[in-house]
Amino acid sequence: MSIIDRIGRGTARLRRVLAPRPWIRWLVLVALAIGFVAAVADHRRGVGEAREAWGDTTEVWVAARTIEPGTPIVASRVRLPVAALPAQPVDDDPSGTTARQAIGRGEVVTSLDVAADGAPGDLIPSGWLAVPIAEATVSLARIGERVVVTTDGVVIADEALVVDDLDGVPLVAVPAEAAPLVALANDTGVTLLRMP
């Protein structure tokens, strides 16, 4: 006798037992329904306990998409646990203001991420100066991108930040001590090396 025959005979016997006793079928269905409701209630209780473990929650502004430095911020309001928030989240809607640095999608927008009035000067790190660069070779470096400034194959600023584009002329922030040398190098041609 094959397995299929055994299953068929077992099913037939089960039908013969259940047919005159419909209460057994209903009892099984009620037991399954009670089990399902209990599982859902247990899951909801677990979610509630997890939320309570977070502590207090508050509404904050998060980036609605990935935002590049120097571009407008697009934000939406969400509720998050206070314990998980970074320092200095913004209070007012930052949408439309300029991003001082890269902000990932879903990341809480902080006061450090927002350029106060959207001017290029807000992207310049403290203690740095900005110099317009006459590039010998166009680098296509974007606002907010970190670069290395060279001239004639010599590195004159190993850390620099593109803070604006003045009609194709990049405005680059460099440490204050390197700024005069970068400005002087503009006469011979400066090359911006983009960093990975």
Mind explaining what this structure looks like?
- The chain is of the alpha+beta class and 196 residues long.
- The chain has 3 domains: 3-54, no CATH class; 57-115, Antifreeze-like/N-acetylneuraminic acid synthase C-terminal domain (Type Iii Antifreeze Protein Isoform Hplc 12); 126-194.
- The protein has helices at residues 3-18, 22-54, 179-185, and strands spanning 57-63, 75-81, 98-99, 114-115, 128-132, 146-151, 154-166, 169-175, 191-194.
- The model has no long low-confidence stretch (mean pLDDT 83).
Q: Which terms summarize this structure?
A:
196 residues; alpha+beta; Type Iii Antifreeze Protein Isoform Hplc 12; 3 domains; five-stranded antiparallel β-sheet; two-stranded antiparallel ribbon; 3 helices; 9 strands
